[in-house]
Amino acid sequence: MHHKSDRLPGVDPSRREGPGQVDLQRWVDGIAAIASAVNRPASLPELLDLVAETACRLMGYEFCAVFLPDRQRDVLVITGSHGLSRDYVDGVNSDHPIAIQPGADAAPSSRAYLTRQPLQVSDISTDAAFVPWGGVAREQGYNSMISIPLIVADQVLGTLNCYTRARHRFGTEEVDLLTTLAHQAATALTTARWRADEARKLRDLRKLNESLEEQHQLLRQGEEIHQRLTGVALRAEGVAAVARALSELLSRPVLIEDAAGSELAAVPYDNRVPRAPGPVARENEELSRLLDTVLPRGRPVEVPSWEGAAGDAATVLVPVALSGEVVARIWLTGSAGRLGPLDHRALEQASTVLCLEILRTRAALEVEWRMAGELVTDLVTANQAVLGTAAARAQRLGHDLSAPHAVFVLRDDSGEGRRTSRVLNVVRSVAQLVRPLPMATTMGDYTVVMWPAVDPSSDELLRAADRIGTAVRRAQADAHVRVAVSPLCHTLSDYPRAFRIARGALEISGLLGSPERTVTLETLGVHGLLLQLEDTGELVRFASDALDPLRAHDTARNTNLVETLAAYLRHDLSTARTAEALYVHPNTVALRIRRIESLLGKSFARTEDLVDITMALMVDRVARLSGS
Q1: Matching fold, domains 5-198 and 239-361
Q2: Domain segments of the chain as ranges
Q3: pTM confidence score
Q4: Which long-range contacts (CB under 8 A, 24 or more apart) does 92-95 make?
């Protein structure tokens, strides 16, 4: 806050004689020192300290201060001073700030600031307006003061306050000199502010220029990313090329999978291998939700570590959506937080190119799948008009009907509407990665797949059926899909029977409430054996003879004895559980069971009778599903 006399060239303290007495040479030198300070890179407080110091040395005062209004222009605060202690300055600014307000009882500095006229107090002990500052004034040791407004271009910037220990009357010439000094100080203050404002603008312009250069660089690099990935799309280089380009742009391992979780491309980087969660890990509720989440194109999300994940490295998932449906996923090794603007641009562009590749692939495959689907329909419905050309048609599509196949029949029983088209898309995404290539189509509520058996003696077909069911459930979180597997087909004439058996197995599994998601003839027991019979005529007559009395009674009296019988056997002869399933009272079930025993002339207490009734229902189910 205090400054040495070497800041004022030519000033000789020994020539200072007392308050109000000045040496003209020293005056000129002091004014020049203020002007010189403006041209130096001095801060505003340094400049105002110099103004206060100059006033003290030129006029012979002990203390001087420069007051400026605060940001709100509510109070005047000491911004520069000379001779005043730090305690005094802090006390005035924090405890007794000078409020800018009109009136005779306002502080002298406030009145000088508002009236634009110098205002002096020869004896502060007799001025009522100075009472709030009397204590700090006595501690500082001054008794007289004068406040000169700092005016430039008709604008009041603040005040220059001078204080003397001795009681002093500031004369007219002295006030004029102080006013001249105040004008010079106001001009210097305005110039300093202008210079500071220009320096700030210059800094802002430099920052803006740097920002523009950075943005230009980002745009240039972004354009390079766009051109590179667009080139991949225009050249139709496929998903593998997108993965390679993205890995190089992000400097990370990249793995791309389809909506069913089947790997489409994987590119390692820097000895790191891309990874994605396996089927077990995907059963986790949080991870499953992330897999099905549709995000803005190219937006990454960090995936929590899953059970069985290698190491502690973070993993990033970028869902690729098309028309609100996740059609692919990009997996990245590393943290999402380290992805910069260009990385996000690359991911966004890669997502767009992937959508184009998927649409292109879908368009090309759609024709093949449609033709293959027509062939499947002809085979399983025994269309004799086209069976002669079936083998040649299949060969043109890349399928070999000389190899054994199994028929898979799927249905999604998830409630409102059976989404066979979406199930078919998932089945196709799984099938297109298999060689020899399977064929698939939809028939009503069913999805029918002809799956080649590379090794008929193994569990290959069951694993394939499980994989398809899992893929559908993963792609549609609310799906309740079951898959039935037929016996192997070795000739073209085997396919209608295989379809009938697999469809029947699927329906019987549903009727029995089986928890199995993959249905085989073995899992159905006796029903499975009955489904394989070629001639069921005698069995159908047996079932009709056994159940016709109940059907006649139901028709004549509008009862539900056949339904009650099926539920009673399905619930292990439990009256209570049967009543719960049929939403009736247990006594009602008991009455119906006695009526059934009476009409059939059989008793559920006798094992032979129970077997006959159970077999009749089984045969009836199979006959109805087989169309016999």
Answers
A1: yes
A2: 5-198, 239-361, 381-524, 537-626
A3: 0.44
A4: 92/133, 92/136
